[in-house]
Amino acid sequence: MHETEHTRPEVVREHVPEHDFGVVQQPLTALERIYNEGWVRKGLILLVLAAIWQAYARFLNNDLMLPTFSATLEAFVSRTLSGELPAKAWVSITVLVQGYAIGMLLAMLLTVLAMASRLGNDLLETLTAMLNPLPAIALLPLALIWFGLGSASIVFVLVHAVLWPVALNTHAGFMAVSNTLRMVGRNYGLRGPAYVAKILVPAALSSILTGLKIGWAFAWRTLIAAELVFGTTSGSGGLGWFIYENKNTLDIPVVFAGLFAVIVIGLTVEGLVFRTLEMRTVRRWGMQS
Predict the structure, then answer these.
(1) pTM here?
(2) Does 54 fall in a domain?
(3) Contact 227, 220 (CB under 8 A)
(4) Distance CA 34, CA 194 (A)
(5) What is the rounded distance in angstroms from the CA atom of residue 245 to the CA atom of residue 231?
């Protein structure tokens, strides 16, 4: 018997152009590309809110109750060009930076101590359970007695506002670091501050940034409230005192201009400082989507 060789015939397939594939790629229109930008969508939201504000204020027709958005914007621009609002804002920001920096430093020290020993962990948990629910503004009377009327009293309440949210979020981030990363650090012989700086901080940076943002928000609103109660700081008033003074003279558009300045500074810090920091760290490293 002869074996019959069966040879599979060669199959030659013709090249199929890309435009004949089942998946069709359609380029985005210019309007869709613009809408995909986050700042454009947020800007549209702000424009809608401003339009609602303007319409409702015109409906009320009472500047003592609610000035129009256009009147508020005019007061904001005039007081900015005169230099009054920038000077007040600088006074507030200077005091805020002092309290924020001290609060962050103390939060980091407490967190490192909590990671170093059980006693430190118990200390942090006890202090946060006691003091975190306490509003910073409630410490104003004590601050007045201890430090007198001035920037030192406001720095004290700002430290309280910043310390606990930053410490809690940093500690939670450190505790969430995987055991694998911890063992890698130990195997490389890292101990103490080097272990915290090279292993824990990069791995927990997302939680740390969240705590910093919360601490900033708490500190900013605590500062404005403290200035409303305290009045002047270091010989000149900040934004809170600016709002209080113009409220007494019933210059309500200027009062809203002061509030508008508070909002603008808050949005600027959130958009420029924290968003840039997130983009260059946790999002660039793939730790956030």
Answers:
(1) 0.77
(2) no
(3) no
(4) 45
(5) 9
The token pair at 164 is: 């606990």
Instruction: Compute and round to an integer the Cα radius of gyration of the chain.
Output: 28
The CATH number linked to 129 is 1.10.3720.10
Long-range contacts of 241-244 (CB under 8 A, 24+ apart): 241/88, 242/84, 242/85, 242/88
The answer to whether residue 105 sits within a structural domain is yes
For 236, phi and psi rounded to 5 degrees?
-145, 150
Structural domain that includes position 184: 83-280
pLDDT of 233-268, one tens digit each? 545 678 888 888 888 888 889 999 999 899 888 888
Question: In terms of C-beta distances under 8 Å and separation of at least 24 residues, what long-range contacts does 175-183 make, across chains too?
Answer: 176/204, 176/207, 177/203, 177/204, 178/203
Residue with tokens 């809170």: 240
| Structural domains in the chain (count) | 1
- Give the total residue count for the chain: 289
Give the number of other CB atoms < 10 A from CB of residue 102: 16
Distance CA 260, CA 243 (A): 10
The one-letter amino acid at 175: M
Q: Name the amino acid, one letter, at 61.
A: N
